[in-house]
Amino acid sequence: MQVTVTVNGEEYTRDVDTRLLLVHFLRDHLGLTGTHWGCDTSNCGVCTVWLDGVPVKSCTVLAVMADGHAVRTVEGLERNGTLDPVQEGFVQCHGLQCGFCTPGMMLTARWLLDHNPDPSEEQIREAISGQSCRCTGYENIVRSVRWAAEHSTVEATK
Amino acid sequence: MSPAIGGTLARLDGRAKVSGSARYSGEVPIPHLAHAVLIGAPVANARITAVDATEAEQSAGVLAVLTHLNLPKVAMQPSLLPSLAGLAAPGHTFFPMQDDTVHYAGQHVAVVVADTLERAEHAATLVRIDYDTTPPVTLLEEIKDQAYEPQKIFGGLLPGRQVRGDIEAGLRDAEVRVEAMYEFAANHHNPIEPSTTTAAWDEVGRLTLYDGIQGPTSTQLTAAAFLGVPPAQIRVVSNYVGGSFGSKAMVWPHATLAAMAARHVGRPVRLALNREQMFTSCGHREQQRQHLTLGARADGKLVAVRHHKLSLTSHFDDWAEPSLQSPAIIYDYPNYEGIYRLGRGNINTPTFTRAPGEATGMFAMESAMDELAERIGVDPVELRLRNCSDTDPATGDPWSSSGLRECLERGAELFGWAGRDPRPRQRREGNWLIGTGMATAAYPHAQPVNPQRARARIYSDGSVIVEAGVSEFGTGISTAMTLVAADGLGVTVDQVRFAGGNTDMPNITAAVGSAGAGAASAAVHLSVTALREQLIGMAVADEQSPLHGADPAAVVVEGGRMALRDRPDAGETYSAMLQRKLVPDVEAIGNWIPPAQDVGHGMHTFGAQFAEVGVDAELGLIRVRRMVGVFAPGRVLNRRTAHSQLMGGMLWGLGQTLLEATRMDARSGRWANASLADYLVPVNADSPDVVVDTVEVHENVVNPLGVKGVGEIGVVGVAAAIGNAVYHATGYRARSLPIALDDILSQAS
Amino acid sequence: MRPISYSRVADVGTAVGTVTADPASAFLAGGTTQVDLLRIYVEQPRRLVDINDLPLRDIEELPNRGLRIGALARMNEVAEHPSVIDRSPLVSQALLLGASPQLRNMASIGGNLLQRTRCTYFRDVSTACNKRTPGTGCAAMDGVNRGHAVLGTSDQCIATHPSDLAVALVALDADVIAEGQRGRRSIPVHEFFLPPEDTPDIEHPLDHGELIVDVEVPPAPDGSTSLYLKVRDRESYEFALASVAVALRVEGGMVVEVRLALGGVATVPWRARRAERMLTGQPATTENFAAAAREELAPAVARGMNGFKIELACRTIVRALETVAPDGAR
């Protein structure tokens, strides 16, 4: 069936199989491969994107469910060639190694900071505990989000 | 100018990874791509009696259903050889879908190819396969009476038995003995990216494989051998890999199957393992049991160690991870016996899993050392110091470098170990019993056996490209190699671009066993050194150069400018010289020949781990509050990436200790928790406060830059440090990993 | 996933009518469990009726100091709603200790109550499971069953009910409001979750096509203190090995009123009525808490690997009661 999904502010209309998962729609139909796929069962969190302004796991959302809705992916974090403070934080604080979990982590982090601009370490840890990282040991991820909190401008979001 | 090596350069692939533009092996845009889905046998010990693919073949979008009935035979009878050898490196000596036998659950029995993933997945459920089944054997308990002593283990690399001195006499004469049995659950790597291969043949029969792998060449050579295609016709691209931890060290059949499927349907094919298939398709850390006896003098000096391991392997390979290697040599004692015993079961061949061997063997050793310390009333750190050896006890050779004493002392200081009350169950904070523990970490230094190569080229504008065929699976190797190249050539980091990730580039053996950085840095260092000598040679031979006639040895280079050491004003930049001479570029190859096996030195990496735990014994909860790890990994190329790897390794150790276990349903012979919902890995909320430090050692044996690597050592010893801390907190000695809530509940409250 | 059709509905009547008329259809809300189960063929409807556009997302305060929560309100919306935090902190706590933020943003309250068990055999279509395929047997009974239930089991099924929210709702005597072809009805939550007995495939009393529209949550007893305590291997993001929802009112050292429910150990969210009866009117002491806990777990049946849950449940009850009792009740 035909769906129209607004992704990172741009409307995309595509004819899709009703079984198609949002994660594969983004990756294979729109070429937005920054959203990754890792477990099929909504556990690892690498497929996290925003749906209507909140982070969700796109491996348990059908593409057809997103018809008429707005999605934000990692490709939509950057503004006019400037990295979001969260992205900058992950680079500066080495919040990544293999990078596979990174986009999902950052989307949750951005959402967290939008709602809680000055989160504690515990709040950060809890916010991203639905997302697994096997490389970093998480410490630098927490530091990256803190870095972003300390370097965020009011305009950085939305 | 300070050298780039040892600094804290932010990783150069950071921007690609945070912007989402880094493309992993399942993300390369290829027109007309078809999707392959593997079907795994739902039974573990069977013969296939019938296959009916009719419904699947007629299902919408299906291009092919391949089974043992129509898949071509592979051209090679596989042999098991670790990818570090640099040759074809299949994960097991078995290739699926060659006959009707099912050796283990999950074994690939069919491949379905369709025009979309959704259609391929659905069609896979329509393939009817009938099995004639026999009860499987999948547990240690079931094979322990039929276990045998293998000639060799670990892909033929190590002997099945190692002995020195007189173990019977040593144990008999010991004044103190500690003897215990240790149990280990199977573990799975669970990198967050499932293994994925995209295969595309061109019109003249050349194959491109986009494969997530620890070394592109290993896929190239393995696929070439299986397909009967010259390696020169196969190009493997592995630009970004979403974690591996050993699961992508060997080349498992799916990579070749993707190529076979693509050839069969005449279209490019992507084959991604799903998460469940990751539990049966790329090895695991085997379920095992270790029996360890320490004999010591009353002052704690070890005199004898007997260490036996029993583990489960497949029907076709003698695989055991080398759990006995480090415990055999980390301390100075004369009498030793290490024996591996194996039992065959209906499981896939196990494989390298981060800190392969040491993660388990050092848990046994360092738990027993903690018991010994308590028994004789010596502080655990002091006990290790008393047993430190300046030489490799197996050979008597000096260490190429050690640093163990310094790690123990520095770790104790950072952790605040001094003054610890050794008695268990003394500290309580509310419902939490608090305890501290420590352990030695050790990991043998592995070397590739074949030459390692890199190519360096400078352009007349001064920009430099350095290439070597390494994979970036998170370690930060590209960043580290940029630093090595900049220092070696005498240019700034921003003048250098390092490129890796495919087989067009000079060959580097797979980055496994913490050997990747050492091998690649050696090749890169030699390539830029050769280039620099060539450039200096050009300058001193050029009448128009301010350096004309100078002794090349008297020329130094900094920021891309060659100058006389004694007269810095006399000089010119590489760029100025090349432009004047109308030379567009200059290139050199670095060719590092690793030292032979017998270098007259013991080569090992050491470290020390400390942990503090809180145990809510009433509810069975163990929470690690903080960890300190200090390591001596030789030269650290980039502190930032190295520390991150070490820290990540320590969390792996935490996972192994408290959470990670793959449980077998012995009735079906299938893993009972093959998902990330049921196989628990640590989440962010589990990660404690971690301090990582390194101590400097003088290392000039292992490779030109003295790099021993940091991939594994961070894991080693964590389990024992935490287990010892749990003992200190509760008085309960855990000898089975993971330490389950159930055990604490019944034993420690 | 097998081929499936998809449509949206905008009002409850159409939703109910559409699904009622087609036995092969199913409602689709947040999808966090359902899409997963569709992918692994545990659920195989031919038609999905997306109800996310229905006006069932409001959270209202009721005159009795209770709450009415729309079935499509997302777990996070409910957990963070000021009225919920104020009036029903137990519900908020239970929600926040469940799943992860990304799932809670998507998962609905109605869907939470209807989520299926995490039993790995239920989720594996190649194994025997009476809940998934009645009459095939129960592979969990002698299988890897560390996570399975010890209370409310039958010889047909030992699957644990996974919801945290439901445990809190059972403690609070909430009502599930459903609308079907026969109209609207209110189902007391303790009647909503059906123990497996001989029909483990029947988990609730809803007819096919009957839709949960609201959940009504009465206030906790006056003067009580409440807590949701969840014990699990991992610090976060895991289903409970044992959990306790408690609301306790103590006066003069005596238990005046207590509500106690258990999660993670039973086939349904388990109201601990035996323990409640034993405690009411008794001194709030650890000894009495422990005796009540033992009484509640007396009928528990361990199988293979899950025996530890009996002791764990007892201790979790005691810890929860101690935590909310004045002065820790020692």
From TrEMBL, chain A:
Protein name from the UniProt record: (2Fe-2S)-binding protein
PANTHER family: OXIDOREDUCTASE WITH IRON-SULFUR SUBUNIT
GO MF annotation list: 2 iron, 2 sulfur cluster binding; metal ion binding; oxidoreductase activity
Keyword annotations from UniProtKB, A to Z: 2Fe-2S, Iron, Iron-sulfur, Metal-binding, Oxidoreductase
Pathway where this protein functions: Alkaloid degradation; nicotine degradation
Pfam families: Fer2, Fer2_2
Domain 2Fe-2S ferredoxin-type: 1-77
Key word Oxidoreductase present: yes
InterPro entries: 2Fe-2S-bd (IPR002888), 2Fe-2S-bd_dom_sf (IPR036884), 2Fe-2S_ferredoxin-like_sf (IPR036010), 2Fe-2S_ferredoxin-type (IPR001041), Beta-grasp_dom_sf (IPR012675), Diverse_Oxidoreductases (IPR051452)
Species this protein is from: Rugosimonospora africana
TrEMBL record, chain B:
Gene3D superfamilies given in the database record: Aldehyde oxidase/xanthine dehydrogenase, a/b hammerhead, Aldehyde oxidase/xanthine dehydrogenase, molybdopterin binding domain
Xref: InterPro entries: Ald_Oxase/Xan_DH_a/b, Ald_Oxase/Xan_DH_a/b_sf, Ald_Oxase/xanthine_DH-like, AldOxase/xan_DH_MoCoBD1, AldOxase/xan_DH_MoCoBD2, AldOxase/xan_DH_Mopterin-bd_sf
Residue span(s) of domain Aldehyde oxidase/xanthine dehydrogenase a/b hammerhead: 19-135
UniProt keyword Oxidoreductase, yes or no: yes
Source organism phylogeny: Bacteria, Bacillati, Actinomycetota, Actinomycetes, Micromonosporales
Pfam families given in the database record: Ald_Xan_dh_C (PF01315), MoCoBD_1 (PF02738), MoCoBD_2 (PF20256)
GO molecular function, one term: oxidoreductase activity
Source species of the chain: Rugosimonospora africana
Keyword terms, alphabetized: Molybdenum, Oxidoreductase
Coiled coil: none
Protein's UniProt name: Carbon-monoxide dehydrogenase large subunit
Record keyword Iron present: no
